[in-house]
Amino acid sequence: MERILIIDDEAFIRENVERILGEEGYQVLAAAAGAEARELVSEEDVDLVLLDLNLGTEDGLEVLKELKRIDPELLVIIITGFGSVESAVDALKLGAFHYMKKPFKADALRLIVKLALQTQTLRREVRTLRKGDLTLFENVPMVGAGAGLKEIIRQVKEVARSPVSTVLITGESGTGKELVARTIHHLSERREGPFIEINCASMPVHLLESELFGHEKGAFTDASQRKQGLFEAADKGTIFLDEVGEMEISIQAKLLRVLEDRRIRRVGGTRNIEIDVRVVAATNRNLRDGIREGTFREDLFYRLNVFPVHIPALRERREDIPVLVKYYLDRYSRAFSRSFQEVSPEALALLEEYPWPGNVRELKNVIERTCIMHDGPRLIPGHLPREISPPAAPQAATPETALADLQLGLEAATDRYERQLIAAALATTGNNVLQTAQLLKIPRGTLRYKMSRHGLDKPGD
């Protein structure tokens, strides 16, 4: 979870920012003065700072200088009143990322924070990869045993040998397209260069153009300084265009020109800049359908599709499921100090039969959640979510069983059905009383009473 620090002497501003960004899932820290802010930045891992230039008797520019001395890579967004824009420009010269005028709208705050955090992530990744840190690839290997995955690995090794070839990775969401892109980069001669990723569906068209190609000072409102684009930042490395099928037609034309000429021009610029970048694109859409519908350029498709790699859905390569389950079970057992050693045949059969609409990403999340909620040494059906291991339904009534129940009487037949239902729910939750009560939608005390009355073993919570 990203941590954002708001520094403002007005409690109303701090509380408003905490509310807006807290709703977006960020962890928000707050400081009313420079000393408190300096302490937080020194002691906490802060990803982004929102700094008011007018902190009562304190000069916000001096606070900015001190924060930059503590962490030179810290991103700072300046908050400024209408009359202090000149000071905001001075702050940009001192290394601030951007500035916002008061009063600001919630949507504007959300957008600039999102862009700043994406920028911070990219900067860190570039620094890490340039140092030759390959832990990203070592920690997330391409796991599987089937012929389909082996063919993908063979293709990846082949294209990695080529210094420039453009790659188009297709497959459903969650199949591992980003992992394939990273592996291509890691195995290539460009591994010492940066690997830069951008999701083409996550930004408005005008921001995406600036992010990809950069802009010159004064190119548009708020373009207060020259900005390097991601294609420039990825020079001698790889740029990964995720969800390229969502890119607007106007940007597609400019991307096509880059692929043809290997040159970019910043927004508002007049000079062409030579780049040496491998482009890897990915999509979960059928781009040929997009061509027919007029939403994707045919000439761009053929430029991207120089070396196609298709990743089958997990339901199409079920032979990989046992290997993936074992890999993630070992990984998360270590991460959460669990004692899982194996998967029961019944649980593995359920995992192999499930259609996995979310593919490998969904399987990974299921095993992670299982290791958070349960402990081993054996993973059983009761540990799995209900969509994978639904409660065993009590035996359906037939004319024959109904006649037998008539002989028992209504009360005894009802008791028998209730006992079957509770037993099935307990098996589903791995004998967890709290979860069983929630599943049956009854109070835990009521469940304990009924378990005792029916002679069921008393499981632990």
Automatic annotation (TrEMBL):
PROSITE patterns: RESPONSE_REGULATORY (PS50110), SIGMA54_INTERACT_1 (PS00675), SIGMA54_INTERACT_2 (PS00676), SIGMA54_INTERACT_3 (PS00688), SIGMA54_INTERACT_4 (PS50045)
Presence of keyword Coiled coil: no
Molecular function terms from GO: ATP binding; sequence-specific DNA binding
Modified residues (4-aspartylphosphate): 52
Pfam families from the UniProt entry: AAA_lid_14 (PF25601), HTH_8 (PF02954), Response_reg (PF00072), Sigma54_activat (PF00158)
UniProt domain Response regulatory: residue ranges: 3-117
InterPro entries assigned to the protein according to its UniProt record, in alphabetical order: AAA+_ATPase, AAA_lid_NorR, CheY-like_superfamily, Homeodomain-like_sf, HTH_Fis, P-loop_NTPase, Sig_transdc_resp-reg_receiver, Sigma_54_int
Name of this protein: Fis family transcriptional regulator
Species the sequence originates in: Geobacter pickeringii
Lineage of source species: Bacteria, Pseudomonadati, Thermodesulfobacteriota, Desulfuromonadia, Geobacterales
